[in-house]
Amino acid sequence: MADHTTYGLVCSELSEDLSKTNLGELKLDSFQDNSVKIKIKAASLNFPDLLMTQGKYQNRPNLPFALGMEGAGIVEKVGSKVSSFKEGDEVMFGGWGHGAIAESIILPESLVSLKPKSLNFSEAASFKTAYLTAYVGLIRRGELKQGETLLVHGASGGVGMAAVQMGKLYGAKVIASGTSDEKLKIVKTWGADEIINTGLEGSVSFREEVKDLTDGKGADVIYDPVGGDVFDESIRCINWGGRLLIIGFTSGRIPTVPVNYPLIKGFSVIGVRAGEFGRRDPEKGRENNEIIMELAESGKLKPYICKEFPLKNSKDGLEYLRDRKLVGKVTVTMS
Fold first, then answer.
1. What is d(CA 65, CA 11) in angstroms, rounded to the nearest whole number?
2. Cα 133 from chain centroid?
């Protein structure tokens, strides 16, 4: 492979069925004075990767593009103005939006971090987005306090499992919800105090179980990456003064809230955008990153990797993600 090209999972045209996403050669970005070239060892798969192949995500890279929002690897080359890294450093990266499911990538120094020694490459590739979202959501926006009850929806996904682990680390009683008993059993080994099967789509019901587990009060903080019917039921089992955190809408339906509910029950509905939080307040953004990296370095936070696909089978990994078979995170590893 030439220095200016790489080989990876490339979306050549937008499609609904991944028919235009296949392995192939792709041109790398030009190398600048502040650039770092990385030999990628692992990349994580995320639902936005699927959405990008369909043109349904807010980030719409120019075609063709390699998939993968975050990864980890070894520095191969640094620009003349790069001061934080040297050749041979083990690093991780995210925030670029695409290009991680490939053999190499060229990035600005600002988007690269040293890999914590406590994480392997797959874990490092799966770490930053999920745990930064959990930290900003629970601590910065949700102001979670020790002893409060945290209800995490979609708890068997990567973002959900990160919130379960983060909530437990900060002293909350954690209730994890999902639609698979088998997956929820794994989540309980990851720190959840209680698990609730919220039922099949169209029959979501967990209000009474949450009330029973909280002495009738309801959850103090609710972490919701699901939306839809799950959000609707959540406003019926939130405590007075509670905080309902909007993370996303994996159910596909963006819900609405009758404003008399937060008025009567005194709760807040709070949007969480971890990346934007840091862009709006760079100082706190740096602090957020430092905190989660220190927690990873100390071994207190670590993603759960349920399956690894080699690069040659990376499209199978996307289908595995699409079919919602995962628990925690799915990664692609490079030879």
1. 6
2. 7
Alpha carbons 240 and 36: distance in angstroms, whole number: 49
The Cα-based distances of 204 to 175, 185, 220, 298 in angstroms read 16, 19, 20, 38
Which has more confidence, 312 or 335?
A: 312
C-beta of residue 27 within 8 angstroms of C-beta of residue 7: no
Cβ neighbors of 64 (< 8 A, separation 6 or more) are: 10, 11, 12, 24, 26
Mean of all residue pLDDT scores within the chain: 93
Contacts of 243 (CB under 8 A, 6+ apart): 141, 142, 143, 220, 221, 222, 267, 268, 270
Q: Is the pLDDT of residue 221 over 80?
A: yes
7: helix, coil or strand? strand
User: What local confidence, expressed as pLDDT, does residue 335 receive?
Assistant: 74
Is the pLDDT at 307 greater than 80? The verdict is yes
Q: What is the mean pLDDT of residues 74-103?
A: 92
Domains and CATH numbers, the chain: 5-127+303-333 (3.90.180.10), 129-276 (3.90.180.10)
Whole-structure pTM value: 0.91
- Alpha-helical (H) ranges within 59-180 are 121-125, 128-135, 158-169
Residue 170 one-letter amino acid: Y
**252 neighbors 226 (Cβ within 8 angstroms):** no
Smallest CA-to-CA distance from 10 within 106, 107, 99 is with 99
Residue 270: enclosing H or E segment and its boundaries?
strand 268-271
Q: Which amino acid is at 330?
A: V
